[in-house]
Amino acid sequence: MLKKLNGTGLLIHHWDTDGICSAQLLLKHLGNKNIKNQTPHIGNYFLTEEEINHCSQHDFVIIADMALPEENILKIAKNSKVIIFDHHIQKEIKNIVHHNPVAKGADPNLYPSTSWIINKYLNKPINLFAILGIIGDHEHRIKNNKTFQKIISDFCQKTNLTFEDLLKMVYLLDSNYKIGDKKEVEKTPHILLRIDDASEILNNKQWNRNLTLLTNEIETLLKKPAREINDNIVLKKIDTPYNIISTITRKIAWETGKHTVVINTGFFTDKNQIYVRSNINLEPMIKKGVSLGFKAGGKKEVLGAIVPKDKTDFFVEEILNFLQNNRGV
After folding, report:
1. What is the reported pLDDT for 329?
2. pLDDT at residue number 316
3. Any idea what the Cα angle at residue 169 is, between residues 272 and 183, rounded to 5°?
4. Which H, E and C letters describe 9-37, residue by residue?
5. What is the pLDDT of residue 189?
6. Residue 176 contacts by C-beta under 8 Å, 6 or more apart in sequence?
């Protein structure tokens, strides 16, 4: 189907490792197609009117690892053929090519990343970029998934890489979006198209400098105390210009084993970032956020939202009430 696409194309992908690796796989497969790639403004899980208008200049638009609002997709589809590859919780959008097994009811544990879905769709052998997307979204937790623990272990043995090598590559690739370097994010899939060896990722000087800066910032923020809402919920407020809220949330949640809610007041001037990790299904709160007019998305165990500053306390209270009233896994 992808090989039959004609005209000019635009590939919109998430800014994290899964999105970047998904873009690499698609760009490599499309080869001689006239296609450009871009991400939304980092931190936005939606497209601006300007970005939607830009899409209309292309004959086809491929969206990878971005659970964009349905209204965004339908506007794009008025002028361009739309193809979606994703693994997030979302409603299947009719009348376009929407390749997301999770949206169709499949077990998310079988589809841990968009890179894995794309690689299977393209019928490609297991490779570095399909694997990095998985580790990017799950880190050490993927070892609890017996199927993929074996797949990754076999891949490491075959390539003489360790799991820690793969994790370091994820941190390096993610460093560009976390410092807010959109241009470097958009260059990275093309850099990955040219690499011959994983060491070229591990030894990238610019990405290593980014990582050092971010590591220091994360360590500083984690040292500041969080608020214990009860014996099962942690709330933490941070103020940082770096897009590291998901990393902070993940580290707290995985270290404490508790529902974790993090608010970042420093990334946007007029809005706050809210990020939640839990062991209960957060889909009702994702839908609640959307119904309230907020930009919200995520997966079963993750909620990310961008909320006006004057609405933040209200939505956080809604989240805390939900977590307190839904203690089951």
Report:
1. 40
2. 97
3. 55
4. EEEEECCCHHHHHHHHHHHHHHCCCEEEE
5. 98
6. 15, 184, 185, 188, 207, 210
CATH 3.90.1640.30 segments of the chain: 2-202
pTM of the model: 0.85
Q: Which fold has domain 225-325?
A: Diaminopimelate Epimerase; Chain A, domain 1 (3.10.310)
| Gap between the Cα atoms of 90 and 204, Å rounded | 35
Q: What integer pLDDT is reported at residue 88 of this predicted model? A: 87
* Sheet of strand 227-230, all strands in order from the earlier edge strand to the far edge: 227-230, 233-238, 259-264, 271-277, 302-308, 295-299
Listed as ranges, residues in the chain with pLDDT below 70 are 327-329
The pair of three-digit structure tokens given for residue 213, joined into one six-digit string: 């800066």
Q: How far apart are CA 95 and CA 92, in angstroms?
A: 10
Question: Which amino acid does the sequence have at 11?
Answer: L
Tell me the C-alpha distance between 327 and 118, whole Å: 35
**Cβ distance 26 to 2 under 8 Å?**
yes
Give the fold, CATH level 3, of 2-202.
inorganic pyrophosphatase (n-terminal core) (3.90.1640)
Q: What is the DSSP string of 125-184?
A: PP-HHHHHHHHHHHGGGGGGSHHHHHHHHHHHHHHT--HHHHHHHHHHHHHHHHTT-HHH
Contact 10, 35 (CB under 8 A): yes
Beta bridge partners of 75: none
Evaluate the CA torsion angle 45, 262, 165, 42 in order and state its sign.
Answer: positive
Task: Give pLDDT tens digits for 39-53.
Answer: 999 888 889 999 999
- Sheet with 81-85: strands ordered across: 34-38, 8-13, 60-64, 81-85, 97-99
